[in-house]
Design brief:
mainly alpha, 0% strand
């Protein structure tokens, strides 16, 4: 296998994620702000959060952390989509028309977990940059861009600081990949069995929507925990962190209210559903472009 053939799934995934991420970045900002407000007992109304953001930061506020978003799409989305394509190719048996659901699920879970660790530094930087203006001015990190965020984190917290929240990020990514990719593949099979053209618009768009919906359902609880861990700071008086880890955060949230795990689900789905759907559609189109160009 040549260099391009090895790199192509990752390039395709990176381009797909970056295009989709640019489109939904404003919704992602609002989603993060809602989760932070829910953890602190604040107003989680979409309209209130969006209006507050616009009033405080102007239109540019909806694109805070855009450089971190692109870094995240290249490192994380490129890896999880690229690895999934490679894993499914490796899992295919000679003469097997389609992979069984358990195989696609295993490939999706594995690709999501590995990609999350690769992309955690960018994901951590993105969450912090999006939430920075919510902190008191003296506590703001004021990262200039994603590279400045990386350098500052390493300087202040050590190299291991780049992996803060990685276990929760990996769980969230596994849930997202399972819902998004395994159900996308299954939906394509079902739509083809119903007589829709293989590779046609109905199959591609319908399966992409199914992947976006189930990806949101399976990943939101993990995303909530991940966000709380990545934005936490030591208590000014005691120096202690609010959570000891993902399990501690999950248990405290569960005791407070199980429904907190699904805080902001409409806006989360409005963000995760479209970005997953758009990513899968763009990925399909880019793959067809490579084929048309004989690449």
């Amino acid at each position: 296998m040549g260099v391009w053939e090895s790199c192509k799934p990752f390039v395709t995934g990176s381009l797909s994620g970056s295009i989709a991420g640019t489109i939904v970045q404003p919704i992602d900002i609002v989603k993060v702000r809602i989760q932070l407000a829910a953890a602190e007992g604040g107003n989680t109304s979409v309209a209130h959060v969006a209006q507050t953001l616009l009033r405080q930061d102007g239109p540019a506020g909806f694109f805070q952390g855009i450089t971190a978003m692109y870094a995240r799409q290249v490192l994380y989305t490129g890896s999880r989509l690229g690895l999934y394509d490679q894993f499914t190719a490796m899992a295919s048996s000679p003469g097997e028309a389609a992979l069984p659901f358990w195989k696609t699920s295993l490939c999706a879970l594995s690709a999501g977990g590995i990609a999350a660790v690769i992309g955690n530094p960018a994901d951590l930087s993105l969450v912090r940059m999006q939430a920075d203006n919510l902190l008191p001015e003296a506590q703001r990190r004021n990262y200039k861009h994603v590279l400045d965020a990386f350098a500052t984190i390493v300087k202040q917290e050590g190299a291991a600081g780049l992996l803060q929240g990685a276990p929760a990020t990996a769980l969230r990514a596994m849930g997202l990949n399972f819902g998004m990719l395994a159900f996308n593949s299954k939906a394509k099979e079902q739509l083809a069995a119903m007589g829709f053209e293989k590779g046609g618009n109905v199959q591609v768009f319908g399966a992409a929507f199914a992947g976006g919906f189930f990806g949101s359902v399976f990943s939101l609880p993990f995303d909530f925990v991940k966000t709380q861990l990545q934005k936490m700071k030591p208590d000014p008086s005691t120096g202690e962190m609010p959570f000891k880890g993902p399990l501690d955060c999950a248990l405290k949230t569960l005791r407070a209210s199980p429904l907190r795990f699904y805080s902001g689900f409409p806006v989360y789905f409005a963000r995760t559903g479209p970005i997953s759907t758009i990513t899968l559609i763009v990925q399909d189109r880019i793959k067809k472009l490579w084929a048309a160009l004989d690449l």
